[in-house]
Input
Amino acid sequence: MDMSETIFFVDDDACVRDSLEQLAGSAGWRMETFASASEFLARPRSLSPSCLVLDVGLPDASGLEMQRRLADRPETPIIFVTGCRDVRTAVRAMKAGAVEFFTKPLADELLLDAMRHAIERSRAALARQAEREALRQRYASLTCRERDVMAHVVCGRLNKQCGAELGISEITVKAHRGKMMRKMGARTLPDLVNMAAKLFPAA
Output
């Protein structure tokens, strides 16, 4: 097991925190516990595989509010725990991407399985983030003209069409296109299109 994998646990009950810390430790994970939402939010964002086991009823923020505030952190999946059954809250949490929603007392094996799944999800999210960052760096290395050519190429324009729209010759387009493909590390047009989709997901 990767010793950098961390389970964050937020609960205002010290006894529950101690119990979960022992459980995570027995499975080989690092454990960081917090008594409040504000304590956890003050912690720097995790750069290694992790998950957050979050009590629904915290004194300073509801679990769903925390989930909304952490929506931009897919590398830290959330497992909810609660002391009372609340189907509506559970449904909302799961629809918003929670890994699991457990009612206390917690079943150790079920929680451990959920943590393992969450850590795998975290690892995948971190890999996607690293890939996007590498693509951003490659894209940043392009000249303005190479970016123009890329924008036209991924839209399906032929070299001749690119040249006409950019006011340059077809031969010049080919030269810029070749340099751009090499810098981006794209061997084929579909490779380049996939890269553009990852760089500009909302486009």
